[in-house]
Each structure stands twice: as structure tokens, then as C-alpha cells.
Design a protein that fits this description.
168 residues
Length: 168
Amino acid sequence: MTTGVVVLGEISGVFGVKGWLKIRSYTRPEDQILAYREILVGNVNEWLSFKVSEVSGSNKGLRISLDSILSRDGAEQLVGKKLAVERKSLKNVQKGEYYWLDLIGLKVFNLNGEDLGVICTLHETGANDVLEVRGDKISLIPYVSDVYVKSVDLTNQKMIVDWDKEDI
């Protein structure tokens, strides 16, 4: 399981003269990132903690104001930085639900016990999410519980799917 810091988005630009930041969210729904009142700003292992003063979401995009960033100049210094929270800040999910970050890296086996590879990413398609599994070849497996995805074991880092090794 992933621990520590979870990246939720990035600062894509500045807005106005009072230090507002335009943000690109990686969360679904996209505006879920606005729910956090404390956020980390930085890259990889260097993070600074900020309190979120105000948020704005509209057809013009998502924007936040941080407590100690009060000018456009201050905001410009943060463009390109990632936005994150500590893992413990994520809300708990219901049984059978998972954060994508917990699925990435799981070993995938089919019902015959054949190793299909490792989940390297997930794709949002509208109808259902799709697992991209890399092994001897790349398999795109629909994430449909009880149809293709039979079990997820985060403790042992594996997933069992109803998928033929020869299917692409």
C-alpha cells in the first residue's frame, strides 16, 4: 500500500494580483481537491504545508488561495509545483472500493494462476475504468467487479481477474 504523501494535482498558473493559484486536479471528481483545508506544496521529498484560505471552482477552472501567499509574485514562485496531502488525510473508502494509487503496482493473476503482469496505470473511459497491466505484453482489462475483477488483496499486493492470458 502507498503511504506518506499523495499527490492530488499541480499548480498550473496564477490568477489575479492577490496570490490566487490556478490548479490542475488529478482527483475524481475533479473538484474533490477543493475539499482539503491543509495542503502540501512542493515536489518529491520537499513539501511545505499551507492552510487553504479560499477555493473557487467554475467553468474557468479550479483556483485556491493559500494563507501566506498574498501577491502575484509569491504565487508565481509556486507554478509547476505539485499539490499533495498526507495519506492519512484521505477519506476512508467503502469495502470493495479502492484508490487508484493502491491498485498501481499490484501483481495480476488470472483464474488459472497465470501471471499477467503488474498494474502500471488505470484509464478512465466513461463506462468503466480500465486496468493497464504490463507483463509479457500489455493487457487492457476492464475494471468491472465480479465480472473481470474477482478479488483485490492489498495486503499481499495481488489481484485475481477472469482474463485469458492470450486476450489483448
